[in-house]
Amino acid sequence: MAAGADPSDAAIVSALEYLWAKDWNIFDVYDLSVIVLALVATGDRETHFDRVQFAMDRLVEKQLRTENGGDPRDDGGWGYSLTGDGAHMQYATYALYTAKQWGVDIDPVAWKKAERWVRSTQHTAGGWNYNLIESPWAEGPYGSMTGTGLMALKMMGVPITDPDFERGMEWL
Asked: Which of 76, 118, 127, 159 is the S-S candidate for 171 at Cβ 3.0 to 4.6 Å?
């Protein structure tokens, strides 16, 4: 659809039929996020609004919480199991933002917790890395995750004059 195909195109109709046939209760963060983006891209609120709301409710349920046994540093993020990471956060916040633009009801606490998590994962140097764990493939901050952190803050309504936002821009 982003390339100009009409939602009535056979490939798009087939893809949507495939999605509708699945058990949406088993989808993970990436699945739910991309589904929201695809359904909103159709522009058909009448047909897809309730499913987008359902996907958003599941996505918020999958937000990491300390009370579920997770590390307090990951409270408010998204990721595999109990560890949050920037890639999950990127998809989840983009889906949250997109659904919000469509008028989907999203718990404001989810936004606040996500913002707190994004801020807490900012490296002391000003950028972001994949998560709080230093590893051989992700030592310190790097460009794509810093762009993701800045994008997330902006979608959460953080002004560009915010000190954390400015530090991220300065790092870039």
From this structure: 127
